[in-house]
Amino acid sequence: MKAVHWTGLALLLGVGAAFFWLRLQVPLLVPLFGLSLPVEGLWLLGFGLGVLFAGLYLLAFGLSAFWERRRLMREIGRLKGELEAMRRERIEEIPRIPDRDQETP
Q1: Membrane-crossing residues (predicted)?
Q2: CA 87/CA 98 separation, integer angstroms
Q3: Distance between CA 1 and CA 34 in Å, rounded?
Q4: Nearest 10 degrees: CA dihedral of 56, 60, 65, 71?
Q5: Which helix (H) or strand (E) holds 100?
Q6: pLDDT class for 81, splitting at 50, 70, 90?
Q7: Could you say which DSSP state residue 101 is in?
């Protein structure tokens, strides 16, 4: 997943560099819906849409990671509860496993 993020960043920076390079060039006019827009305006529009979609992607990715972590923590709590219930029933058969949060001697 890191490769996808680095590739997206490189593409974003490349589009930004192309926009600034085109801004220094002779402005070309592109007909669009009856208007004549300069190429730099189209690059700016494309760059803005790219930033918007990248932001939405990162927001969705972060939220999915957050909800997955919550689900896994609930599952861990449920399994710990089951283990404690089994330990109370048959205390001599199940060895005690120390938690990772506590220091072991």
Answers
A1: 41-67
A2: 14
A3: 42
A4: 160
A5: none
A6: very high
A7: S
Phi, psi dihedral angles at 90 (to 5 degrees): -130, 75
State how far the Cα of 43 lies from the Cα of 19, in Å rounded to an integer.
6
Confidence of residue 13 (pLDDT cuts 50, 70, 90): confident
Nearest in space to 24 (alpha carbons), one of 39, 12, 36: 39
| Tokens 């593409």, residue located | 11
Alpha-helical (H) ranges within the chain are 2-24, 39-89
Categorize the per-residue pLDDT at 79 as very low, low, confident or very high, splitting at 50, 70 and 90. Answer: very high
Cα–Cα distance for residue pair 81/87, rounded to 1 Å: 10
